[in-house]
């Protein structure tokens, strides 16, 4: 069995996969990778199953060594990675020889970088998924962020890994954006015309309170019209809730399954990966689209991700 | 599409991959029984492409896979389910007793609740155990059951600043609701006591002591009984 040693874990590093949908009635949200597009690309490069578990690093990377060697890939934000001191590229297969050490620094652009290995990381599954549910301390490695000295087991890869990379033009089309497309929220009509216009016109900055549960934004307040009282209801991923302060909050992957605040809009599924790459102080803007456009964008993204020529061989 | 055969049902497209089914704009047992019936029906006869269900007081959110299903088709498929709701027998009610130690060491907010409502701590405890509650739904964290309705005399707001960690098993109140924290999590409800029962067992596949629709009663126990049960 191959292993990876955590020499230093970075700010907040957890084991993630595509999550555990289906347990809403138990009060358990789906969780899973914050940027599932980036994580899927890592597994594709390594010929892993889409459900293979990877490491999600947040804002800073960490140092990881491979005593038995490994084929790996780095996808998502640029944490200026090096292997035994030599710079390595993201979005392609990297071969680490036994004893080599991977070092990732602070982020140069987005919020999250994924480290995938051929065979995936093996942890006990909770409700069918390896994803860490940090709030409740379940899933992943003992339900917590990685720490110095942790040892992660790597699964056996039964298909050969070819030296390949993601085709650059496909990658460009899958890049995260700061313009978030949204559809109507269930309570959109609780907000006045002027308030809604302000919401779509303004730039909002991401506050320090941005994590896997949700991202608090700061900008022009968009309060609901008076006399609207909400009964707590099921809340979808990406819901843009507006609490009393009038400052919007995006519900994210480790969200509560229900919410008691009115929702002015909802980030479209195709843009959820972009949300996962937002850092504190980043500025975002919202753009309204119809449900039809949202669906078309999701289909287009899926076509890119499943295209037979997504990967190209490297010399 | 609004189905005429299902009166008082509101279908709202909540996001590109979800549909909210609302049975009313207030918290009532009648609305909630319809939520329970629909949830049960969808669990027994799943609609292909529906990936998750988020029940709440008077509504049910259906999360679907947008690659394989769209709103119009889901609304059409749902009409058959909604038409059958009224004819369904309600699920048998389970009655569950939860032993609670209201000792001061555990019920750290009891005195403040008493002060806010001009009651004695003993009155707060007596009122909290005075009635049977219904599990409206589970949310917030694995196995966290929203129980109602708390006596109006105990209606207090949440803490201004939530605690970083509420100990596992804490029995707490907020508004007209009460709940047990199944795991150590952050939380802003006011804590009255602690139960030694395991509310949520993660291994192997996640079992919650409480389910939607259960009727729950809190039974006061002594510190000694609590310690004994905790070790059992």
Short description:
The complex is a heterodimer of chains A (315) and B (232). With 315 residues, chain A is of the alpha+beta class.
Verbal overview:
- The complex is a heterodimer of chains A (315) and B (232).
- By secondary structure, chain A is α+β, with helices and mostly antiparallel strands.
- Chain A folds into two domains: 2-166, no CATH class; 179-306, Cyclophilin.
- Chain A has five helices and 23 strands.
- Chain A has helices at 36-45, 168-173, 193-201, 272-276, 291-306, and strands at residues 2-8, 13-16, 54-58, 60-66, 70-76, 82-83, 86-87, 93-96, 100-106, 112-117, 121-122, 151-154, 164-166, 179-184, 204-210, 214-218, 233-234, 239-241, 249-251, 258-259, 263-267, 283-288, 311-313.
- Chain A is globular, with a radius of gyration of 20 Å.
- Chain B is an alpha+beta fold and 232 residues long.
- Chain B has two domains: 10-87, 2-Layer Sandwich (Gyrase A, domain 2), CATH 3.30.1360; 95-231, Cyclophilin-like (Cyclophilin, Beta Barrel).
- At the A-B interface, strand 17 and helix 5 of A face strand 1, strand 2, strand 3 and strand 4 of B.
């Amino acid at each position: 069995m191959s292993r990876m040693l955590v020499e230093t874990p970075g700010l907040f590093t957890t084991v993630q996969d595509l999550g555990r949908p289906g347990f809403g009635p138990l009060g358990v949200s789906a969780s899973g990778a914050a940027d599932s597009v980036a994580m899927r690309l890592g597994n594709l490069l390594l010929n892993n199953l889409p459900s293979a578990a990877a490491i999600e690093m947040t804002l800073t990377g960490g140092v990881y060594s491979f005593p038995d060697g490994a084929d790996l890939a780095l996808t998502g934000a640029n944490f200026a990675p090096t292997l035994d001191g030599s710079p390595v590229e993201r979005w392609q297969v990297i071969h680490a020889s036994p004893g080599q050490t991977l070092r990732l620094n602070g982020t140069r652009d987005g919020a999250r970088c994924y480290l995938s290995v051929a065979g995936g990381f093996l942890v006990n599954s909770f409700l069918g998924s390896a994803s860490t549910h940090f709030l409740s301390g379940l899933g992943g490695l003992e339900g917590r962020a990685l720490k110095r000295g942790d040892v992660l087991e790597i699964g056996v890869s039964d298909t050969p890994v070819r030296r390949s990379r993601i085709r650059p033009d496909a990658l460009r089309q899958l890049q995260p954006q700061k313009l978030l497309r949204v559809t109507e929220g269930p309570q959109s009509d609780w907000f006045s015309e002027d308030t809604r216009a302000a919401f779509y016109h303004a730039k909002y900055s991401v506050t320090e309170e941005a994590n896997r549960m949700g991202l608090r934004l700061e900008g022009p307040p968009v309060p609901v019209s008076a006399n609207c009282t909400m009964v707590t209801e099921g809340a979808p991923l990406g819901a843009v809730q507006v609490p009393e302060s009038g400052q919007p909050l995006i519900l994210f992957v480790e969200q509560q399954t229900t919410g008691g605040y009115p929702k002015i809009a909802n980030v479209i599924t195709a843009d959820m990966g972009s949300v996962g790459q937002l850092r504190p102080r980043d500025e975002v803007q919202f753009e309204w689209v119809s449900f039809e456009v949202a669906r078309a964008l999701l289909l287009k993204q899926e076509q890119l991700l499943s295209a037979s020529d997504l990967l190209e061989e490297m010399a | 599409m609004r189905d005429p055969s299902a009166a008082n049902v509101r279908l709202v497209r909540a996001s590109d991959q979800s549909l909210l089914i609302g049975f009313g704009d207030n918290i009532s047992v009648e609305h909630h029984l319809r939520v329970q019936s629909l949830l049960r029906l969808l669990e027994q006869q799943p609609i292909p492409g529906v990936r998750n269900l988020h029940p709440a007081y008077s509504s049910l959110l259906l999360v679907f896979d947008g690659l394989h299903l769209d709103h119009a088709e889901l609304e059409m498929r749902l009409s058959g389910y909604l038409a059958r709701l009224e004819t369904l027998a309600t699920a048998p009610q389970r009655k569950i007793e939860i032993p609670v130690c209201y000792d001061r060491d555990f019920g750290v907010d009891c005195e403040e609740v008493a002060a806010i409502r001009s009651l004695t701590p003993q009155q707060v405890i007596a009122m909290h155990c005075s009635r049977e509650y219904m599990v409206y739904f589970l949310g917030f964290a694995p196995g966290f059951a929203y129980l109602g309705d708390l006596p109006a005399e105990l209606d207090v707001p949440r803490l201004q600043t939530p605690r970083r960690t509420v100990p596992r098993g804490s029995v707490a109140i907020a508004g007209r609701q009460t709940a047990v924290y199944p795991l150590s999590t952050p939380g802003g409800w006011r804590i009255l006591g602690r139960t030694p029962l395991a509310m949520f067992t993660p291994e192997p596949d996640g079992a919650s002591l409480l389910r939607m629709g259960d009727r729950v009663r809190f039974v006061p126990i002594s510190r000694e009984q609590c310690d004994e049960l905790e070790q059992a």
